[in-house]
Amino acid sequence: MSEKQTMSRRLSEFAVSLKYEDIPSEVMEHLKNVMLDGYGCGLFGSTTPWMKIYKDVLTARTDRKEASIWGTRDKTSVTAAMMINGSAINSFELDDTHTDGIIHVSTGVLGCVTSFAEMLESVSGKEFLVAAALAYEISCRVAAPIGMELAHQGFNNTGTTCVFGSTAGVGRLLGLNAEQMQHAMGISGNWASGLQAVQFASMAKRIVPSKSSEGAIVGALLAKEGFTGIEDVFENEFGGFYHCFTDRVYNEERTCGELGDRWELMGIGLKFYSTCRSKHTTIDGLRKFRAEHPEIRPEDIKKIVVHTTSITRKYSVDADDIKSVVSAQLSHPYVCAVTLMEGNAFIDQFTEDKIKDPKILEFARKVEVVDDPEIENLPRALRYTVKIDIHLNDGRVFNLEVNYPKGHPKNPFTKEELLWKFKTLGFKAIQDDKKLDKIAEALFNLEEVKNVRSFVELLRKE
């Protein structure tokens, strides 16, 4: 009887054997949409003040010019570029989310595989797309069974899980064999890290989710030279990934089963608002209410009660604790207030001046966020469900319920909405509509590109 394969071995054999032709067309289309969204978020992020600090600090410590910093004319080392570009994607709460895994996948992997492919100089569009598909898919598979457990334990979901996907992508670009890939994962898993407490106020929130993918580059390069890692990195009972981070909660078949037939990356949704994903169903509900009841003004509202899951409540900042743009983006009360007062919760609603507006903060104090046991017990696919009670001064109460936020796979963007978001964000860094159109067109036809460096060049300022 043959010995049972470890989880990392099963994933590694899939990673080294996948062909471009094996990826279903609908999966490739969704992947490209998610990637375009990620590049748009990254271009916008390159213009934020916190990313300037991060870029200046990292680039001052290397003279290498291996990979581009998107939205700029600069190049730096591949590891610095990976960390800067990945963090830029996460820099304004605009990046994608895998529902069950609770991870921002582009933040975790796109900066890494793009920067590494650029450094290698001779990667074709098809080769890059296969590597990207592996990075996204394996990240989602590692995270999917344990999203809620990781979050409740206080770990950063993206930072702890996406290192494995990035390793698969980088390892594929390097041409690792299955044994080398397995060791690469066993090395890079030691970079799995991140604390949920970083969510609530600090600039560090922007950089944590992508930092661990540095381990993907180091691990893959070491494994190519024969360096060995933990062969059972996921299931080892003393300090293996799932035992360490989730107290032995995992589902091997959700992570490793039906490889190539079931695509977990299809569960990635895009964001329509500049806030934590768990607020989006609330925003959708309030925007619909505002449109249907234009006669009801914010001052007519006595209070709002939002019923949600315990983890969503934990992810909310009270109105009186809003100290930064980050904390406003994590604040359910602020998001409710700005949506009802301004009709949206996009980039213009999260500025240093706006988050200090006394009228917005006064309204935010009317909002209460509560655990709802009924919502808590729904299937994880419905974890964004909210019930909203809007109490008016005249005694009337409106009850709303929303299950899937705009951009969720069950409530997806139209192609027009995708391009609108990409160009709106991208224009902050590259003020050239025609060039932004070229980026989108090139990505949608990336399999025809002989060298992916020509695509990456479009992400740079001229």
TrEMBL record:
Pfam family for this entry, one: MmgE_PrpD_N
The MmgE/PrpD C-terminal domain, residue ranges: 273-442
MmgE/PrpD N-terminal domain ranges (all copies): 9-248
Domain of life: Bacteria
GO molecular function, one term: lyase activity
Cross-referenced InterPro entries: MmgE/PrpD_sf, MmgE/PrpD_sf_1, MmgE/PrpD_sf_2, MmgE_PrpD, MmgE_PrpD_C, MmgE_PrpD_N
Family of this protein: Belongs to the PrpD family.
Name the UniProt record assigns to this protein: Uncharacterized protein involved in propionate catabolism
Organism expressing this protein natively: Acetomicrobium mobile (strain ATCC BAA-54 / DSM 13181 / JCM 12221 / NGA)
